[in-house]
Design a protein that fits this description.
- The protein has a single domain, classed as Rossmann fold (3-Layer(aba) Sandwich), CATH 3.40.50.150.
- The N and C termini lie far apart (about 35 Å).
- The longest helix has 14 residues.
- It is globular, with a radius of gyration of 17 Å.
- With about 250 residues, it is an alpha/beta fold.
- Helix 2 links the parallel strand 2 and strand 3.
- It has an 8-stranded mixed sheet with strand order 1-4-3-2-5-6-8-7, sandwiched between helices.
- The protein has 8 helices and 8 strands.
Length: about 250
């Protein structure tokens, strides 16, 4: 059983995050700071969060996926940047045979999402505080994932911050290793410039190809299958923004 609100797999010099303070007040963690500060997503926990066993604080040495995902599920998937957990909640309800790990760098948001998941009573989902790209790189076994979901990632629009984006050239081999044959990367964004970068990076990837039939299928399947819902999506639809939703299939090895 995973201990709630405790840093997973601690080491002697591991600094346990402070579960009651804002993200910027947490001790330095090299895994979490590779993507820059997350002040724009900070949230001070108000004491009402009750995540139970649905929240794991990764710390400096997070557990591998095989220790987080219970056995017996048909598929195991990851959402990078779960925010307040709208997709995690919908997905765990719509697909009880799938286990979804939501990875969120902002501890306050992860705690909020985990509290909602814990209240639902569902055991086919979990929230982890960690660096999503690093987790895929060093905590996921080859071909362990049926899908990776990345919705409305921060575009880091300033040129000097471009390296902090999730979709840089070096992410392709990370995704190709972690996603199984015929598995999927699902992506959505309202940012045209960043979407263009994703189209370039994934379009040039020899291990993936865009699958428009899959895009139609999952949208018709309803909330929780892919793309929808997220809080950003709801906001941007109300604002009339164009949202690009793409599915990239992992080609057989």
């Amino acid at each position: 059983m995973l201990a709630p609100l405790m840093p997973a797999a601690p080491t002697p010099d591991d600094d346990a995050p402070n579960p009651t303070g804002p993200d910027d007040a947490l001790p330095f963690n090299p895994r979490m700071h590779q993507g820059g500060k997350l002040a724009f997503r900070s949230r001070i926990q108000d004491g009402d969060d009750e995540p139970g066993d649905r929240l794991v604080l990764g710390g400096r040495n997070p557990p591998p996926l095989r220790e987080l995902a219970p056995t017996g599920f048909t598929d195991v998937e990851i959402e990078i940047g779960s925010g307040k957990g709208a997709f995690v909640l919908a997905s765990t309800e719509a697909r009880p045979d799938t286990f979804l790990l939501g990875i969120e760098a902002a501890q306050g948001y992860a705690a909020m999402a985990a509290t909602r998941l814990y209240a639902s009573g569902r055991k086919n989902g979990l929230l982890l505080v960690d660096n999503g790209k690093l987790f895929l790189q060093d905590r996921v076994d080859d071909g362990e994932l049926a899908a990776v979901h990345v919705y409305f990632p921060d575009p880091w629009p300033k040129r000097r911050h471009a390296g902090r984006r999730f979709f840089t050239d070096d992410v392709v081999p990370v995704l190709a290793r972690a996603i199984r044959d015929e598995g999927y990367l699902y992506f959505a964004s309202d940012n045209a410039a960043y979407a263009g970068q994703v189209a370039r990076v994934m379009g040039a990837a020899v291990d993936f190809e865009r699958d428009e039939d899959e895009e139609v299928r999952v949208r018709a399947a309803g909330p929780g299958h892919a793309f929808s819902p997220t809080n950003f999506e709801r906001k941007y639809i109300e604002e009339g923004r164009v949202i690009r939703r793409w599915a990239f299939r992992r080609l057989p090895r």
